[in-house]
Amino acid sequence: MxxxxxxxxxxxxxEAGRVVARALAAVREAADVGVSxxxxxxxxxxxxxxxxxGSPFLGYRPSFAPxxxxxxxxxxxxxxxxxxxxxxxxxxxxxxxSIDCGAELDGWTGDAAISFTVGTPRPGDLDLIDATQExxxxxxxxxxxxxxxxxxxxxxxxxxxxxxxxMPADFGGHGIGRHMHEDPHVPNRGRPGRGFPLRxxxxxxxEPMLMAGGQNTYRTDSxxxxxxxxxxxxxxxxxxxxxxxxxxxxxxxxx
Length: 255
Known about the structure:
Blueprint: H1 7-30, H2 37-51, E1 73-77, E2 80-82, E3 96-105, E4 108-117, H3 125-141, H4 149-162, E5 172-175, E6 182-187, E7 203-206, E8 209-211, E9 218-220, E10 227-229, E11 235-237, E12 240-243, E13 250-251
Antiparallel strand pairs: 1-3, 2-10, 3-4, 5-6, 5-7, 7-12, 8-11, 9-10, 12-13
Binding site for a divalent metal cation 2: 111, 174, 207, 239
GO molecular function: aminopeptidase activity
Keywords: Aminopeptidase, Hydrolase, Metal-binding, Protease
C-alpha cells in the first residue's frame, strides 16, 4: 500500500531527515585512517541520541537476513556495495567508504547515504563517486508530479551506463514514511513512462549504487548482509529521501 503524505507529514519527515544529515556529517568528520567502523557507528549513535531519535536500521531483520542488523549505520568499504556491518576494521589510506543511515523521529523516518574516500583517493574512485552523485541528481530531477517511477529509474540508468558502471539488479530505492521501507519499489533501471505514477505527497528514497567494473552481479558475505561486487571492483552508494511536490522534488535529508 502506498501512503500519500500531507504537508504536515512532509515537514515532520524533514526534521527526521535533518537528523540523518547530521549523523552522516558526524561520521564523515570522524572517518580517518586508523578509525574503526564501529567508531563511525558510535558517532552516528551519539547524534541520534542527542536528537531523541531512534534507528530504523538497528534490529531490522528482513526475510533474507539470518540475523538482525546490529548497528545504526551500514558501512560498506571498497568492493562492498551496501549493507556492510560496522566491525573492528580500521580504515586505511585510500579506502572508499559508503555510509547509509536512517533516523526515526516523532513517528516519521528519513534515510540517506554518502560515499567518500579516506586519505589519498585511488585512481577512479572520485570519478565513481561523481557518477553516483550524478545518477542520484538525475533521479531526483525526474521525481516530478505527472511522471512515473520508470522516469526516475531510466534517469539513473542512463547516467550509470554512460559512466560504464554496473548496478545490482535486485536493489534500488523505496517508498518511505512511517516505516523505512514502504511501497513503491524504485528500481535503478527502468523504462520512462512506466510504473507507479508520481503524485504530490509521495515520498521516495532514491539510491543509486554504482559498481566500477561494469558488471551487475554481486555476492553476499557470510554475514548475510554485506553485498560485494563479484569482480572485486569498487562501489559507491549515495541516497536521499525525496518528496514529490507541486513545486518540484523536495529533498528531505539535506543538512
